[in-house]
Design a protein that fits this description.
Structural class: mainly beta
Oligomer: single chain
Strand content: over 45%
Number of strands: 11
Number of helices: 0
Distance between the termini: 40 Å
């Protein structure tokens, strides 16, 4: 059974940092991609970052500020968020989908929410100005 649990959200001042964690179980990371998404009130869910077997990919809005990483031994993917802005305020979710039969080149991943099959419950990130 695939499960994902996010943690690490909270309230931080503008310019501050947070590290989100996504602990996963029920699948082997090398065969799945994991993505981070966020949804602000009244807005659609958007892709923030993703990683599969290669480097991380990022939305333009977070490039240079956010870093995705993984710890295979701990079955955890992290999202380090630096230089946070009030517009980063949202509920952040991690999600996963299998890599097989998705038409992805080796090491790549999707940033679109519709491509993901399993989701965590989300963690709130609030950035005050």
């Amino acid at each position: 059974q695939v499960q994902l649990v996010e943690s690490g959200g909270g309230l931080v001042q503008s310019g501050g940092s947070l590290r989100l964690s996504c602990a996963f179980s029920g699948f082997a990371f090398g065969y799945y991609a994991i993505g981070w998404f966020r949804q602000a009130p009244g807005k659609e869910r958007e892709g923030v970052s993703c990683i599969s077997t290669g480097v991380g990919y990022y939305a333009d809005s977070v490039k240079g500020r956010f870093t995705i990483s993984r710890d295979n031994a701990k079955n955890t993917v992290y999202l380090q968020m630096n230089s946070l802005k009030p517009q980063d305020t949202a509920v952040y979710y991690c999600a996963t989908h299998p890599l097989a039969d998705r038409g992805l080149r080796v090491g790549m991943c999707f940033l679109g929410p519709d491509d993901y099959d399993y989701w965590g419950q989300g963690t709130q990130v609030t950035v005050s100005s």
